[in-house]
Amino acid sequence: AIGVLFRSRHNRTVLNKLLSENRLEFHHLIDCNAYVYLWRGHPLAKNESISMEELCCYPCLCFEQGDQSSSYFAEEILSEREYPQMIRATDRAAMLTLMVGLNGFTLCCGIICQELNGTDYLAVPYREDRDNQNAKMEIGYIIPKNTQPDEITQIFIQEMEKYLESA
């Protein structure tokens, strides 16, 4: 068994406690800053970086996490922020459609898998300011403590490392 997740300043304490309680260990893969993920036709898509102030008139999109939703378990970085417009989607296709139809955005690690999402989307660096700091995403995988990954899991880990090195 393996899981992939990110830790940040916001969720690190909670996740570390849960991992410990469930006898799981986190293995670091990469650190990255937040990026604004949007479609190529978005009015801000050509910017070298994008600030929170520039994003305020566009809807922020996030994945619905179910009834027990918590910003600690969000798939998006900076999920603890208040956004003037927030739309929750339950699947990737809906999220991508809303990005195009409403000029929506989400915040991510900047690593885009074109095989999944196509070439119509891009990630622009998030530009922090005094009131809206960036956050480091520490991406890694979790496995049960004191276990060795089986052969398939080892191959998966190696493929993730290769992909992240080329991203």
Strand order of the largest sheet: 4-8-3-7
**Molecular shape:** globular
Number of strands: 9
Rg (C-alpha, Å):
17 Å
How many helix segments?
5
Low-confidence spans: none
Strand content: 25-35%
The helicity comes to 25-40%
Helix-strand topology string: EHEEEHEEHEHEEH
Q: Mean pLDDT, nearest integer?
A: 83
Secondary-structure content class: alpha/beta
Q: Calculate the terminal CA-CA distance, rounded to whole Å.
A: 25 Å
Query: Main β-sheet, in a few words?
Result: 4 strands, mixed
Keywords summarizing the entry:
9 strands; alpha/beta; four-stranded mixed beta sheet; 5 helices; 167 residues
Q: Explain this structure to me?
A:
The protein has helices at residues 12-21, 52-55, 92-102, 114-117, 151-166, and strands at residues 3-7, 24-32, 35-39, 50-51, 60-63, 86-89, 106-108, 121-127, 137-144. It has 5 helices and 9 strands; from the N terminus they run E-H-E-E-E-H-E-E-H-E-H-E-E-H. The protein is an alpha/beta fold and 167 residues long. The mean pLDDT is 83. The strands form 3 sheets. The chain has a 4-stranded mixed β-sheet. Strands 1-9-2 form a 3-stranded antiparallel β-sheet, sandwiched between helices. A two-stranded parallel ribbon has the order 5-6. The longest helix has 16 residues, at 151-166. The protein starts with a strand and ends with a helix. Helices cover 27% and strands 28% of the residues. It is globular.
